[in-house]
Amino acid sequence: MAISTSHLFVLLSFAVVMSAPSALATNYTVGDDAGWSINVNYTVWAQGKMFNVGDMLIFNYPPGDHNVFKVNGSDFKSCTVPKDQNALATGSDVIVLAKPGRKWYICGKEGHCGQGQKLVIDVMDMGPANSPLPGGTPPPPPSAATKAVVSGQFGFVALVVAVLGMMMI
Ligand SMILES: *[C@@H]1O[C@H](CO)[C@@H](O)[C@H](O)[C@H]1NC(C)=O
Ligand SMILES: *[C@@H]1O[C@H](CO)[C@@H](O)[C@H](O)[C@H]1NC(C)=O
Ligand SMILES: *[C@@H]1O[C@H](CO)[C@@H](O)[C@H](O)[C@H]1NC(C)=O
Ligand SMILES: [Cu+2]
């Protein structure tokens, strides 16, 4: 069977478009207008929200009043502040949800976690989301060569799939 050049071009263009970075990441301001504080029920806040890989959590509070620690499930439950970890404490802390799974955050100020200043969420992996990393030092953008290689791989896989599909018809 023969595949025309224009067919190939359409298929390759499609593959390149499909491998472009997703721009659908969401920013979640923890607690919305109430921010990161005591007297907010973060279980209620998180209810019904869909957290995906690439989304960001933004913890807003007057600097010095609170802080943010990422902890594990047992430290979350017992409100144990990790000793081997520095708090996020800028008052506008951005955390990129880089991996799927359950994530736990607490305030490290005396008594605050016990008063409910703690957040647990489940992060889903809904496909690729290219976003900057946390901490305000974005990685260098991928070089054109890297992009070409990635697109090339995607394009090749898509082409093989498409050709196989056409052969089945
Ligand atoms: C999300 O927050 C980051 C960091 O503050 C910002 O750079 C980005 O533009 C925001 N994205 C959206 C969709 O609001
Ligand atoms: C949770 O993290 C603490 C350190 O803050 C560590 O001592 C503990 O073993 C961890 N627990 C689990 C179940 O990973
Ligand atoms: C938050 O609200 C949930 C659901 O209404 C409730 O089960 C939970 O006890 C509340 N947590 C706090 C710390 O009040
Ligand atoms: Cu606090």
From TrEMBL:
GO molecular function: electron transfer activity; metal ion binding
Membrane-spanning ranges: 148-168
Membrane topology of the entry: Single-pass type I membrane protein
Compartmental location: Membrane
Domain Phytocyanin, first and last residues per copy: 26-125
InterPro entries, A to Z: Cupredoxin (IPR008972), Phytocyanin-like (IPR039391), Phytocyanin_dom (IPR003245)
Keywords linked to the UniProt accession: Copper, Disulfide bond, Electron transport, Glycoprotein, Membrane, Metal-binding, Signal, Transmembrane, Transmembrane helix, Transport
Protein name: Mavicyanin-like
Organism: Cucumis melo
